[in-house]
Amino acid sequence: MGPAVNFPTEPKIPEKLPVIETTNLGKLYRTGFWMNRKIESLKNCNLTVYRGETFGLLGQNGAGKTTLLKTLLGIVRPTSGAGILLGQPIGDRSIKEKIGYLPENPYFYDYLTGWEFLEFVAGLFEISKSIQKQRISDLLDLVGLSKSTAIKKQLRQYSKGMLQRVGMAQALINDPELVFLDEPMSGLDPMGRYQIREIIVSLKEQGKTIFFNSHVLSDVEKICDRIAILVEGELICIGTLDEILGTHNTYYVKGKSGNFQVLKQWIPDLEFDNNFWHGHLQGDPQEFLVSLGLMKARLITMNIERVSLEEYFMEQLRERGIFSTN
Predict the structure, then answer these.
(1) DSSP letter for each residue of 146-164
(2) Would you say the pTM of this structure is higher than 0.85?
(3) 279: region left, alpha or beta (phi > 0 left; psi from -120 to 50 alpha)
(4) Below-50 pLDDT ranges, the chain
(5) What would the DSSP string read from start to end of 43-59?
């Protein structure tokens, strides 16, 4: 019998590990003078978020985004259904030290300086003094706050944007595995929004899982692996942008020279402007490029166009009678 033959094996694809799982999660509030009016803030939410993923939850104001986030964190008790967070039932205290959280409207002890506040939060996590100083300094650099400002200025003197930055720093003080951010770009100028996006990207590179709510669709489109849309407490879609918006793209092309009749066959909405032609390509891009070469035409730009996340989102609201252009 000859020697054993070792056949080559395909590399194993890393298994997706769920960090957040919900099953028919629901939340019902009672309001009114006699508490006889019911408002269903969440309706049978089934959601899975995987380790290392940046997950964006979208929805208009009042859609239930914050309710879902607070339910996952154990701040609000669900009326129905169940959920798992980092392998434990939602609300389990043993996982709190592994979670970071930035509320939409955080309240800070405004008589403290930024540095004192971060020291206070670090103390809640029992982070040793020897580690605190360097970690706070690193986090201030990360969120774009100067060390001198954090040491000297009380939080009551901070602008909305500065408070959002120190809020992000406190959410990361314990080096969490899972970070929840509720409207993290709220109140920030374009530079601040860019910095927060960069922070989220750097957290992903560190292998952390980020779950955040937002109604700034352009930010979500740039940084999320997957998204979910919540409308009136109901998750109406979950997936990657390609899965939700589709992979069928149209190309907007611009060029110079060529045969008008041939170009018109490829570009039904062909227009000319100062000797340049432009319009939307209809047909196979590779064959179009060959055709341009044969007619000695010059291609200047070819850009992919598809339905934007904002257009898709508004269409979903229109279909449900929530938004009307009339």
Answers:
(1) -HHHHHH-BGGG--HHHHH
(2) no
(3) left
(4) 1, 5, 7-8, 11-14
(5) EEEEEEEETT-EEEEE-
